[in-house]
Specification:
- The chain is an all-alpha fold and 82 residues long.
- It has one domain: lambda repressor-like DNA-binding domains (434 Repressor (Amino-terminal Domain)).
- Helix content is 62%, strand content 0%.
- α2 packs across α3.
């Protein structure tokens, strides 16, 4: 991955007003692991990446920097594709 994921994860967490500890609890992981993700020291496994995307209602492509926009609904995505 890249620093893009780390930056986006931190951005999304802060946007929701969550601490690392709160988010870690919601994702059923540790604060330390989440901190490593945000500092780009560790990469999440695909299952965790999918869990993070679902939690924040974004796509995995968005988290990985492959998509510039954040589509919250399938309808928004369909409009963009059309």
């Amino acid at each position: 991955m890249s620093k893009i994921f780390a930056k986006k994860l931190k951005y999304l967490r802060e946007k929701k007003g969550l601490t690392q500890e709160e988010l870690a609890q919601d994702l059923e992981t540790t604060k330390s692991t989440l901190g490593h993700y945000e500092q780009d020291y560790q990469e999440p496994k695909i299952e965790m990446l999918e869990k993070i995307a679902a939690y924040f209602e974004v796509t995995t492509d968005y988290l990985l920097g492959r998509e510039k926009e954040n589509f919250n609904t399938k309808e928004e995505l369909k409009k963009k594709i059309s």
